[in-house]
Amino acid sequence: MAKKPKFDVIIFGATSFVGDIITAYMMKQYGVSGKVAWAVAGRSESKLAALKEKHGAEALDHIIADASDETALKQMVTQAKVILSTVGPYALYGEPLVKACVEAGTDYCDLAGEVQWYKCMMDKYAATAEKTGARIVHCSGYDSIPSDMGVYYLQQHAQEKLGSYCNQVDMRVKKIKGAASGGTIASMINITKEAVKDPALRKELANPYSICPADHDFTVRQDNISGAVFDGDYDAWIAPFVMAAVNTRVVHRTNALMDNAYGTDFKYSEAMIMGKGSKGKSRARMLSFGLGAFMVSAALPPTRWVLEKFVVTKPGDGPSPEDQENGLYDMRFIGKTKEGGQIKVKVYGDKDPGYGSTAKIISEAALCLAGLPKKDKAGGFWTPASAFGQSLIDNLTAHAGLTFEVLDD
């Protein structure tokens, strides 16, 4: 009989900027000797010691492991039910840990928003994960849990209120306050850099069903909001949402893994509400232009160097604790059925999305995964909604500062 893991969760990359925030949250919420057995891990003994001292967690266990040291990773993953990884960009540093977890049958979640890497890991390790029982849940931070769980929540209430699932859902960011994660920006730059060199990758990134199972039945053309567009549902102008390319694909994979519950003709889009009238139109155009300019700059070596050197937030850096506390996001979902029914849902987060909220979200996702019996969910690559369902919503609302609510018409 296999030895029972010592820990429920090990936070790998705990000394990173977001890892430090996750550690603070876990200490505040669960302590060292409470009902949750957890540990921190990283490559530096001195940094881990300083982290524990900072948070009054001297009694907390820690593990030394480098992202490239396969032997150390293998030893680490056997000690936990779940590995929570913050070490990105994952396309550059993440594969050895996923491989170790899959081979050991250890569950795993991360903050990855890199769909090209997500697909690569599935192609390489899905068959083995199914054999060993390892459950892999990528995209377990702000991208893509509020979107994925928001659609799931809407669909459950649509079934109750309207008698059927919605075959069209649109998410609009009404308000967002907070800085983009340095790791997220680094991942975006790395994806752009890879895509410039690889035509096949560019084609894959344009596919809205890129991470769906190979036998999916989805053929509906999805709306790709790439510029300023007028949205009649809100009587306002909308612009591209930077995380839509990740979130939409996760939602479509959820639909596939739930036996096409939302329908084979399901459509889903994401955008940002920029306001009404000429001012809203101007804001939408400016944001669209800014995102386009960023992607072009990231694609060209000279301007990419300038971005990385002088402009964007670097991995390991982030907003002050005050800015994290003062951040928030307000996401609105409108679902429509074939019969003309409609339902509106709001998902609200009480901290800045890239750090303060993400730290709480992934912590609760990891604990959901640790408490999910192997018999209830087989090994493989799951999305948050397809793996956890209502249990994650319950955890997020109880502990992580998120609210989910159906809005009156």
What can you see in these coordinates?
The chain is an alpha/beta fold and 409 residues long. The chain has two domains: 7-141 and 357-392, NAD(P)-binding Rossmann-like Domain (Rossmann fold), CATH 3.40.50.720; 145-354 and 401-407. It is built from 16 helices and 14 strands. The termini are far apart. The model has no long low-confidence stretch (mean pLDDT 94).
Helix/strand layout:
Elements (H helix, E strand, L loop, with lengths): L6 E6 L4 H14 L7 E5 L2 H10 L6 E4 L5 H8 L2 E6 L4 H4 L1 H10 L2 E4 L4 H18 L2 E3 L7 H18 L5 E10 L4 H16 L1 H7 L23 E3 L4 E5 L3 H14 L9 E9 L1 H23 L1 H11 L9 H6 L1 E9 L5 E8 L3 H18 L9 E3 L1 H5 L1 H10 L2 E6 L2
Parallel strand pairs: 1-2, 1-4, 2-3, 4-5, 5-6, 6-13, 7-10
Antiparallel strand pairs: 7-11, 8-9, 9-10, 11-12, 12-14
Helix pairs in contact: 1-14, 3-5, 5-6, 7-10, 8-9, 14-16
The major beta sheet can be summarized as: 7 strands, parallel
Output the strand order for the largest sheet: 3-2-1-4-5-6-13
* Number of individual domains: 2
Poorly predicted runs: none
Q: How many alpha or pi helices? A: 16
- Which band does the percent of strand residues land in? 15-25%
Features:
7-stranded parallel β-sheet, globular, single chain, 2 domains, alpha/beta, Rossmann fold, 409 residues
Give a nutshell description of this structure.
The protein is of the alpha/beta class. The protein has helices spanning 17-30, 45-54, 70-77, 90-93, 95-104, 115-132, 145-162, 182-197, 199-205, 244-257, 277-299, 301-311, 321-326, 353-370, 384-388, 390-399, and strands spanning 7-12, 38-42, 61-64, 80-85, 107-110, 135-137, 168-177, 229-231, 236-240, 267-275, 328-336, 342-349, 380-382, 402-407.
